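Researcher: I need the complex structure. Ligand is fructose -6-phosphate. Inputs:
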Amino acid sequence: MPQTLSVIKADIGGWVGHTAMHPEVLDLGRERLAQAVQSGLLIDGQAHACGDDMFLVMSHERGEDNTEVHEYAWDTFTAGTEVAKKLKLYGAGQDLLADAFSGNIRGMGPGSAEIELVERQSEPVIVFMGDKTSSGSFNLPFYKMFADPFNTAGLVIAEALHQGFAFEVHDLKNHKKIMFSAPEELYDLLVFIGSPAHYAIKRVIARSTGEVAAVSSTDKLSLIAGRYVGKDDPTAIVRCQNAFPAVGEVIEPFTTPYIVEGFMRGSHYGPWMPTSLGDAHPARFDGPPRVVALGFQLANGRLIGPRDMFDDPSYDNARQKANDIADFLRLHGPFEPHRLPLDEMEYTTMPAVAAKMANRWSEV
Ligand code: F6R
Ligand code: MG
Ligand code: MG
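Model: Output:
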């Protein structure tokens, strides 16, 4: 019987402002998941926080896009929203864009990444949680993990990885998808995924076995709501070892704090800082954006973990570099390239200011 690992996440209220989750809301998530395990809906479930987002990590036998699992996640977020409202937390229910659940959580605000798998003799997986950034931010790390031999030695020297990986890329605005095979089509792949605001890697597949190696959430809140409602704060699941990159190869890309969009008001570029769970509460200029890596061994669907993978001094340099990059970018204040280009900002006063100034422009 294949199992499914589902990570469904939402921002349902921040403490303080947009910086962190309140423990009472997280406890509610944990209690609800414990009940779901008891009732037999889930094999196992854990709730974790990165910044102001709650990530429900759920293991079950119901497949991807399962109505009961999605509805349970939705109900957990609505129950958490009630706690957030009681505490008057900031932006209570922020990501819940629909009035009522209707069959599938996709398109309703929360982000999701799900992977159906037949558990190997030993099944190490990493669940990544991001805050103050966007879907598409996993493009570069996924490329490094699954296509760059300078990151993943196994692509060159391990038989099981040598055939390469296939990438399913989604056009986020036009709701289309396409497959690329690496290494043959690397240059074509990069034309698209180098623009993460428009194209995001949804899945990576091992060409040797056809198994899904990785999946990320590609839900874009602003495209769902048609207006700014917060950043997407993405999640990803990556399987490790044997036919997949080793754990150390999967987390290696985050030794460089690549620049992603998000940060203050979802309208700036900033470095993506890898941190432990304990440091995953972006404060300075509502950032810098964070990424946490939770390692698990699956044992017949049970989540043995997490190991907090970036709680490791070997990521200190990346954090230092992220602070240096943030300092430098901040010096640009309201200027690009710290501020996002006009058409990509989540907040803008441009239409109002442009209207006010309309009759003051003259020909040159
Ligand atoms: C970015 C984010 C924050 C808010 C900012 C303003 O993803 O969540 O940077 O955009 O704190 O928030 P509001 O508009 O709620 O006052
Ligand atoms: Mg928030
Ligand atoms: Mg958030």
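Model: Summary of the prediction. The radius of gyration is 20 Å.
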